[in-house]
Design a protein that fits this description.
Residues 1-18 form the signal peptide. Pfam families: Cu2_monoox_C, Cu2_monooxygen, Temptin_C. Residues 17-114 form the Temptin Cys/Cys disulfide domain. This is Temptin. The chain is of the alpha+beta class and 552 residues long. The protein has 3 domains: 152-300, Copper type II, ascorbate-dependent monooxygenase, N-terminal domain (Jelly Rolls), CATH 2.60.120.310; 304-454, Jelly Rolls, CATH 2.60.120; 456-551, no CATH class. Helix content is 19%, strand content 28%. It has helices at residues 3-11, 19-23, 58-65, 72-76, 86-89, 121-124, 136-144, 328-334, 460-464, 474-482, 491-503, 511-519, 525-535, 538-546; strands at 160-165, 169-170, 176-184, 191-200, 207-215, 222-226, 235-243, 249-250, 255-260, 266-274, 283-284, 287-293, 299-300, 302-308, 312-313, 320-326, 339-347, 352-361, 364-372, 382-391, 396-403, 412-413, 424-430, 440-444, 447-448. The protein is globular. The two termini are 39 Å apart. Bound molecules: 2-acetamido-2-deoxy-beta-D-glucopyranose (5 copies).
Length: 552
């Protein structure tokens, strides 16, 4: 598998669909003030998170119960229990407002989900038996804490900034767009360390996440263009990530990303736009400000990605656990010395409800690196390690993702779209030089690219031949000339398949075979013919393997 797939994580973040649209369904929905930050609006009125998404607050619960419409009952209700009705708080005291109209009042608004006065014990003790906060005090402590970027190093003398910002570009009226732009760093004649990155958010209505990738020198600079998972095959190194809920990335004081003469000379910014309302008049020119210094720090840093890229979550299931091992053989193969982890965070989509990353040595747990007991996609929890965590070659890193699909009626697969799921852990580490191979250690189901034991005998060459044109293979000729597509199962077909399976471990069911079908055989005509021919004896082979009759 290519690292290209792996990088998907960032590009694949999904979104609270349409919370901005809901704002238009309540009076003054785009104008609700933040209770403790002047000039800040609470965009996600029905959510605990100011930007929307994640768990609903008391008003959001009632809005949902009302069918996500502004009904008279919802208007007359007092969701936060502070004595003012939702209608009074939102400027529709008589409950007469209809979508598209100008509300009775457009000022003196207050938040319909937050009990006022906030500092009264009655309001502070308001309990929630769902979500991340136990009561309003905890919620408000979180919401009102200073969101100023706490990174004193960026004020040091000689620290410069470079802006990697998208040219002003029209946002297409489609739900998901990835847009990229490739830059040269400001000074390629001297050495610098990038030590922090802060977001410039130009259109908060659609901006969902941003990633800065390091590129090879030979890539050409390019103005804004729609891109895929990777900005370019030559831009594969993840340098920094911004998502909803973060206000910047401040690197560990011992380390920085090397840019300039002996470091990265070209970089790409990638934005994920989420436009579920399919609005056709938005523009955006968001990006990141990179803070860099000529005073080189002790170590060069980079990011390491772990996780699983092939799993299935059944519908209506309270808990589905997906694990992934970066095996001892993998860390030994990738690293020639200890690396030090300075920060880490987990990433799943909306079904994700718990996740952890653990480190093992000689089979024994050394420590739990990340541990989200309640995972909330919209409020990523960053783990910082002032004393960086040493990870040695030969250590095992295990990610465990736990999903809840109780409210979903269909099966969920790994994937990049909104409806799909992910299971990734990111770690920032130094020194970059100890990582000899690509800093990705993800698995495909149970298969790990760097652990031959997980290949079940279907190793490199064995597998590789199926990714070329199978039409040229002996085995293709044998199977397609003795079997008819989809049957019936003839004696000679059965014999051919048994011979083929006995000689080629890749053809036995299991993750290696599934991967071959998904990425190789199902993608071309000859591959599909081959599969259809193998298919013809499926039932008979099952009977043979299980030595019993199938009940029809
Ligand atoms: C009114 O609010 C209460 C408390 O939040 C809630 O239990 C009830 O379901 C709400 N009714 C309506 C119609 O929203
Ligand atoms: C800012 O970061 C420093 C160092 O990590 C920490 O000691 C301090 O408490 C932080 N201040 C705030 C306001 O978060
Ligand atoms: C977005 O960027 C454009 C172009 O730089 C600018 O004219 C506009 O005022 C910006 N909007 C916001 C909300 O920052
Ligand atoms: C690991 O590799 C890097 C870069 O190739 C080299 O500088 C370093 O000395 C190596 N470390 C060890 C312990 O061999
Ligand atoms: C294909 O069939 C021929 C003739 O029966 C046999 O010698 C050969 O081993 C078969 N090849 C494979 C890959 O099964």
């Amino acid at each position: 598998m290519t690292p290209v797939r792996v990088i998907c994580i960032l590009l694949c973040v999904t979104v609270a669909q349409g919370y901005r649209m809901f704002a238009d369904r309540i009076p003054n929905g785009q104008q609700v003030p933040h209770p403790c930050k002047p000039n800040v609006l609470w965009h996600g009125v029905g959510h605990f998170n100011v930007d929307g998404g994640g768990f609903r607050n008391p008003f959001g619960m009632d809005f949902d119960r009302a069918g996500r419409q502004w009904t008279e009952a919802l208007c007359r209700n007092d969701s936060d229990g502070d004595g003012r009705t939702n209608g009074q708080e939102l400027g529709d005291p008589d409950c007469v407002w209809k979508v598209g109209q100008i509300p009775h009042s457009t000022h003196s608004l207050s938040h319909p989900g937050i009990c006022d006065p906030m500092d009264s014990p009655r309001c502070q003790d308001k309990k929630y038996d769902w979500g991340l906060f136990h009561n309003q005090r905890e919620w408000m402590e979180d919401a009102c804490k200073s969101s100023e970027f706490n990174c004193s190093a960026i004020h040091d003398q000689d620290v410069r900034t470079m802006t990697a910002r998208l040219d002003l570009t029209a946002v297409p009226p489609q739900e998901t767009t990835y847009i990229c732009q490739i830059f040269e760093v400001d000074d390629v004649l001297n050495d610098y360390h990038m030590i922090a990155a802060t977001p410039v958010i130009n259109n908060s209505y659609i901006l969902h996440h941003m990633v800065i990738f390091g590129c090879e020198d030979s890539v050409s600079t390019r103005s804004a263009f729609q891109c895929d998972m990777l900005p370019d095959p030559k831009c594969k190194m993840i340098l920094t990530v911004w998502t909803l809920g973060l206000n910047g990335d401040c690197f560990h004081p011992n380390a920085g990303v090397r840019i300039g003469k002996n470091g990265i000379k070209k970089l790409a910014v990638q934005l994920h736009w989420n436009n579920p309302g399919l609005i056709d008049h938005y523009q955006d020119s968001s990006g990141l400000v990179l803070h860099y210094t000529p005073h080189l720090r002790h170590y060069d840093s980079s990011m390491f990605l772990l996780g699983n890229e092939h799993f299935i979550i059944p519908p209506r299931t309270p808990s589905t656990v997906v694990t992934s091992r970066c095996a001892p053989s993998c860390t030994r193969h990738k690293m020639n010395d200890t690396i030090y982890v300075t920060s880490a965070f987990n990433h799943m989509h909306y079904l994700g409800h718990k996740m952890r990353l653990e480190q093992f040595r000689n089979g024994a747990l050394v420590r739990t690196i990340t541990n989200d007991l309640i995972y909330d996609y919209d409020s990523p929890k960053m783990y910082f390690f002032n004393d960086p965590i040493p990870v040695e070659p030969g250590d095992e890193l295990k990610t465990t993702c736990d999903y809840s699909s109780t409210y979903k009626a269909t099966t969920t697969f790994y994937g990049e779209s909104t409806a799909e799921e992910m299971c990734y852990a990111f770690m920032s580490f130094y020194p970059f030089q100890s990582m000899q191979q690509s800093p990705f250690c993800t698995t495909w189901g149970s298969i790990s690219g760097c652990d031959p034991e997980t290949y079940h005998g279907c190793l490199g060459q064995e597998e590789a031949k199926y990714y070329q044109d199978v039409g040229t293979l002996d085995i293709f000729h044998n199977v397609t000339s003795n079997c008819r597509p989809f049957g019936p199962c003839t004696t000679e077909c059965m014999d051919t398949i048994l011979t083929a399976r006995a000689s080629d471990p890749c053809l036995t069911s299991g993750d290696p075979w599934d991967r071959l079908v998904t990425w190789g055989l199902s993608r071309n005509e000859n591959g599909r013919n081959f599969l259809a021919s193998l298919e013809s004896c499926e039932i008979e082979l099952y009977k043979l393997a299980n030595d019993k009759d199938i009940i029809h």
